[in-house]
Amino acid sequence: MDFKLHNGSGNLCYRSCGRQDKQLNTYDWLADIPGNNDESDLVEVQFKNTRKGYFRNSNKIPLEKGDIVAVEATPGHDIGVVTLTGRLVPLQMRKANIKSENDIKRIYRKAKAVDMEKYEEAKAREHSTMIRARQIAQNLNLDMKIGDVEYQGDGNKAIFYYIAEGRVDFRQLIKVLAEAFRVRIEMKQIGARQEAGRIGGIGPCGRELCCATWMTSFVSVSTGAARLQDISLNPQKLAGQCAKLKCCLNYEADCYVEAQKRLPSKEIALETQDATYFYLKADILSNQITYTADKSNPVNTVVISGKRAFEIIALNKRGVKPDNLTEDLSHIAPKKPVDLVEQESLTRFDRNKKSNSRNKKKKKKQQQNTAANNQPATTSKDQPNQSPAKEQQAKPQGKQPRNNRKPKQQNEPAQQHDKTARN
Q: Which residue of 77, 154, 255, 329 is surrounded by the most CB atoms within 10 Å?
């Protein structure tokens, strides 16, 4: 059976890649398979502030990713966006540790125009409600910060997200808020990292915050990760916008742990015939260690590789002290420095053209020289302008033809004697 994709291009289905609220989006890699929506009546619905819920489509409503639906709530109903359907929903529920399906609420209908009007009205009151709630909490002298307010789709309930270091007794606060806004109040505590992800921003690396783009679970970060990477324990540099340690400190911690296995211990001193050297600092990823002759001050610092340090430690264990820490690198050619500024030069292309033309001229000269050396030796007939000395060298040494023979000198006196006899 041939499966035809919904977009007709033969590639990924466009419905599986819909982007909702940043990191809450779920890629439905089974959206191309026919009948996937009928495999399960469970649907994943997304709300505001990184909140998701799972509902049962008991009315068999044809739903697709991105549809706005009205779902059951306590009390009334809520408005959300469908993010996942089909056989992947039970897997997502298992990932979210939702074991029992008996308490799952149901989907009423697709959102109508009346539902959207109520939802927009309730959403427009959220900011003013948050400002008023902060003033009330300040008047009650509560050590807490209200970060955001979320109204239910029908406007009958409001969720107040707050941040607090310790436990807060907000029973009096709930009574005052209920009287002020005439809605049902629900308090929900969030962490500083979750608030930073909700607000968003740009990190010191120049990119958008990880907690606002892709992170869904927050792992505890300790200063031990900074010590593993030899980062100075400066709280201003280690802290993020949430005033907590940066989550990115954990990203390369495992890589540094593996790289440190190729370095010797910091407590081991290296002994040479000149002096004793102590550990100063190390570049872990490049496997380079800096040693100093004075334990308290950087004096006569020497940079060596981890491999060389292990060699010297092995020699010291056998009672051998090398002449110095550095190894003989005279047989290795030094690397030529790379001029990075030259990459931005406007005349760098002209230089390449000149060098190419010079190379072509050199190649032509070499070809001409090789052709001249490979030519055979020419005779005197081919070279009439040749000097007589060269002609004699160029003549063959074999038997000469008769026309070119010279008269013998022995016959000359005999001919003269005959002439005198005739006379």
A: 77
